[in-house]
Amino acid sequence: MCGIVGYIGNKNSKEILLEGLKELEYRGYDSAGIAVLQNGKFDNFKAVGKLINLEEKTKNFITDKFSVGIGHTRWATHGKPTELNAHPHVGESSYVVHNGIIENYATLKKELQEIGVNFLSQTDTEVIVHQFEKNLRELQNAFQAFEKTVSELQGAYAILLVTKDEPERIFFAKHGSPMLVGINEENEKYFASSDTPLIGHCKEVNYFEDGEYGYVTPQEIKIYGKDTKKRKTHFTKLSTNKLSSQKDGYRFFMEKEIYEQSTVIADTLLGRLGVDEVVFDELDTSLFNGINEIKLCACGTSYHAALCASYMFERYTKIKTSVEVASEFRYRSPIMTKDTLFVVISQSGETADTLETLKMAKEADLKTLVICNVDNSSMVRLADASILTRAGVEKGVASTKAFATQVSVFWMLSLYIAGLRSSMSKEDIAYQISLLREVPASVKVTDTTHERIKRLSKRYLHGHGFFFIGRDIFYPLALEGALKLKEISYLHAEGYPSGEMKHGPIALADPELFTIALLPQHLLYEKAKSNVEELSARDSTICAISALEFDKADDFIAINECRDYMLEFFEMMVVVQLLSLEISIRLGNDVDMPRNLAKSVTVE
Question: What's the CATH code of the domain at 514?
């Protein structure tokens, strides 16, 4: 959560900072701000709400000489979304931006207040700048003061700090939250929380590791590790493609990303499908030697993809598989045996809770694998092996194509492991691969389907809630459908296994309860149909999604007749995504930036 940018150079720093924040606005849009130091003078601007408000505030501010600037877009953790709580935070002669949570901020704040420091905000971040200035008064050296400040912080952070004492430096520190620095031929330095703001400005970037801190000037980049010893920079080439970050005529990024699923799944499959085997060149087969259990760990949408994987792994590989919510797993005392393959799933590769579970697995000496969309992310760098989902940039906070590619990867991975263990015949694997090849076509959005859902959506704007129900692998899809609707429409929705209705939830059934029923023709159709009939008999409003018409349904969304339930899964996935999208649009919501949410959850 939250986005950070920084710049040292001779160009228009205001525009560079605002442009960078625009690329990161999906990470937080409660407030935004910039601070620019030029000619020994700070200019600071903050605004509540979306970035356009900050752009309006800075329209008469001009930067056309050498300057040092930092910027931030906020997703509130400590303190309400107000201008006072917006970053950058100011001391007597310094400014700071910060992503993460300072866990010992209350202790530090109390100590600072006792020596007369006045706090303007309710945030944890403000303690950083005041602690720095306290140390600066004692040490009379800005770098030593920053170094000491970092050693006194507990929690997760990515920090940029600028001070008048060193008008040509940006100090940085990274622990648990992503941050990188980019350079170009003009010797300018750019900071950001992710690659995207640097595209078009830099050719190479250095990804900071946890515990690293230091400073940059126009001439140099100094990096130090936890042990206070100097570290070398490790620059990698930066992509130059920014086209996928634009809306291309769609109303929202989420809508664009739903339509992109056909292309990105094709990319995910590319080069990985043989005739009767799956090929993962990035994996060493020894990773699976001696493995008797697979443990999947994730949060949110990635957790639902992991649940889907558990059905496929046990069905195809015959390996015991369990799924864990990362935020719970990390605070348990889990039994972790070395015959377990520990798999983490994250779109960004920076999800705080999931990253911590990966560290736990590494400490327990388990074999580790990450399924991720971002190369060079923290998880990819830490795990023994990784599979990239190739989903491209996903800007909509409510994930769509990331989920689709994660499930596609898990389907392939289950067949890959099945081939290694001979738990499926070559013929059966070949059949599954032939199904995989059809997925890009099955997720293409047709005008007919989208228009049908658009018209239907007006009937689902009121009521006291939604049940999304499904059986087997369609149960995780029901959970995902409910999550999508909750995230962007703010309507109450729950996902349930169809067979669980009679064990309590059916007590809620009435005409104002909307049931979205996933009824695959080729998997437990009669069982699932019977469960829906029980709800219909209690007068619940039924919207059935199936290839087979259902006479008890109030509304029916037809999918194509498919030859296998996995193809039905992907067709239904698109339907529940579009249904959530259209309901939310009718309610007048900002689909891409739903309230209280941020794209990349890099704090607990």
Answer: 3.40.50.10490
